[in-house]
Amino acid sequence: MADAQETKQKILNHFKDNGWSIPDVASAMNITEQYLRKILNNPDDHWKQITNIVSKYKIR
User: Fold this and answer.
1) Of the candidates 52, 19, 55, 60, which has an alpha carbon nearest to the alpha carbon of residue 36?
2) pLDDT in 10s for each residue of the chain, 60 residues
3) Which of 39, 43, 47, 52 could disulfide-link to 8, CB 3.0 to 4.6 Å?
């Protein structure tokens, strides 16, 4: 299983590669920017949400 910090970095790299900012992604996901940052800052505590982000954006 992937390490939480490694997965977080893959997500952030995917957003960066596509030119997406955190507020853009939060808006597209229909969540607040604050909540998205909370998820990304504490990936160990938010595995379900991290998994949803990975599957929604097909991050490999």
Assistant:
1) 52
2) 468 899 999 999 999 999 999 999 999 999 999 999 999 999 999 999 999 999 999 998
3) 43
On the CB side of 60, CA atoms within 13 Å amount to: 0
Instruction: Return the residue matching tokens 């998820």.
Output: 39
Tokens 């977080």, located at residue: 8
Question: pTM for this one?
Answer: 0.89
Rounded distance between C-alpha atoms, residue 3 and residue 44, angstroms: 9
Q: At what angle do helices 33-41 and 22-29 cross, to 10 degrees?
A: 110
Instruction: Return the amino acid letter for 38.
Output: K
